[in-house]
């Protein structure tokens, strides 16, 4: 059982990651490669990737001898380069303590791990090469699909918050979880229990589309807690036959509302929207009201006409460039 304890300040500091983070997604995929469960669904996926992984990735396996990696690998970053740089910038004291923790009680420590422990530059360069090789093999072929799925999950969460409130939106992320008296309880995924106390630091929600176990929690001092939760289709990601971004978004909003958002690359009237989506004016107006309530469009009246405009949030979900100037997000 995982329990996340909120303060009043933490409720105001819950945010959904605006885009997927390559390094956490990579590490989730690597953990799934080593996980024994769901063999029927993931067996062929594991077999294919394990055969494809180059020898250069071996240092990564050595860092998690018992299936748990050291916490200095727990970084975010909007790009893989940013994530790799954050790992390399880990303080020597944290690196030594975390390597000592994951190897506690083990008789043999690989030479490369000892070199990392001692701050050897060559060992750190080998670790970065290992991560790059793993990324190219495991994640790069499906990264466009990860981005599409993240937009759809972002939309799902935003609509749930807008329509039902934060409590419902949070519990919807994990079937069987519940939020009461300031504690978000996740169903048991292993025999252990973990207590996460936010203490006013806030919470970042990060969907992961490879891991199928319980939440992966990054809980570092003086930083917001990051909770990566299993999302997506529950099946291994494959680049062949991947949906387009429009298909992913339509699965959440519906095709008519997605078509209306796509038509709003520039402000349009209700009549123009109806014509472009091939629906009646009343139908276009009803869908526009729903999109406006979810914060995806704004509406301004000019004389007898109303003009609808896509918000930065909608542009993000569609993968478009958000507007600049006064309409850009702070």
What this model shows, in words?
By secondary structure, the chain is an alpha/beta fold. It has two domains: 229 residues, no CATH class; 78 residues, Winged helix-like DNA-binding domain superfamily/Winged helix DNA-binding domain (Arc Repressor Mutant, subunit A), CATH 1.10.10. The protein has 15 helices and eleven strands. Strand 7 and strand 8 form a beta hairpin. The protein is elongated, with a radius of gyration of 22 Å. The protein starts with a strand and ends in a 12-residue tail after the last helix. It comes from Streptomyces exfoliatus. InterPro entries: ArsR-like_HTH, HTH_ArsR_DNA-bd_dom, Metal_resp_trans_reg, WH-like_DNA-bd_sf, WH_DNA-bd_sf. This is Winged helix-turn-helix domain-containing protein. Keywords: DNA-binding, Transcription, Transcription regulation.
